[in-house]
Amino acid sequence: AQSVTQLGSHVSVSEGALVLLRCNYSSSVPPYLFWYVQYPNQGLQLLLKYTSAATLVKGINGFEAEFKKSETSFHLTKPSAHMSDAAEYFCAVSAMDSSYKLIFGSGTRLLVRP
Amino acid sequence: NAGVTQTPKFRILKIGQSMTLQCAQDMNHNYMYWYRQDPGMGLKLIYYSVGAGITDKGEVPNGYNVSRSTTEDFPLRLELAAPSQTSVYFCASRDGTGGGYTFGSGTRLTVV
């Protein structure tokens, strides 16, 4: 069965610093992987997705993620944090059974210090 | 705009009351899902449907029911509301390519 682990329930960075949010997955088959962002009291917005094409995936708002099969990781990065990046971030894997359901990690809350 | 529409956005229920959370999509997606989000827990799957007339349980189905009589609609029913069902509920649909999931804006439910 597939699963997702997000390391760190809270990450705090200074404005302008590198953002690194960690995600490790478990899957016996090549997965589809996703990062979503949720701003306070809002729904989920897709940041980027990996669907077995290029291993470096570029998303919206300057975010990118690299699929590393050897490390079973799909970490999210952004070179320079902005105050508006403060939100909760979810990593998810698509189940490769007939449901194709999304399996989510528990989320990482990003705090950006001025 | 095409997408997933959830109603209502907010609701307060008393213990033991029942209600239906509505979800509709206009993208002709076969796959639809109901999730609940609790603080620090991520999103947990309640029920899902792979097409009209077909539904199945997810991780946390107890206390809920669903139906899928049309491709467009996937309502979630709470029969006897309990405080443990206080949560934010999200409906989602998936296109056939595997890469596209669309989420509704959510329903915030409080049971008192």
Could you please describe the fold and organization of this structure?
The complex is a heterodimer of chains A (114) and B (112). With 114 residues, chain A is an all-beta fold. Chain A has no helices and 11 strands. In chain A, strands 2, 4, 5, 9, 10 and 11 form a 6-stranded mixed β-sheet that branches. The radius of gyration of chain A is 14 Å and the shape is globular. The mean pLDDT of chain A is 93. By secondary structure, chain B is an all-beta fold. Chain B contains no helices and 11 strands. Chain B has strands spanning 4-7, 10-13, 19-25, 31-37, 43-51, 54-57, 64-66, 76-78, 87-94, 101-103, 107-111. In chain B, strands 2, 4, 5, 6, 9, 10 and 11 form a 7-stranded mixed β-sheet that branches. In chain B, a hairpin with a 2-residue loop joins β5 and β6 (54-57). At the A-B interface, β5 and β10 of A face β4, β5 and β9 of B.
Summarize the structure.
The complex is a heterodimer of chains A (114) and B (112). Chain A is mostly beta strands. Chain A has strands at 3-7, 10-14, 19-26, 32-38, 44-50, 56-58, 64-68, 73-78, 87-94, 102-104, 108-113.
**Low-pLDDT windows of residues of chain A:** none
Describe the main β-sheet of chain B briefly.
7 strands, mixed
- Subunit organisation of the chains: heterodimer
**Could you tell me the mean pLDDT of chain A?**
93
| Continuous helix count of chain A | 0
Tell me the Rg of chain A in angstroms. 14 Å
Largest sheet of chain A: 6 strands, mixed
Fraction of residues in helix of chain A: under 10%
Number of strands of chain A: 11
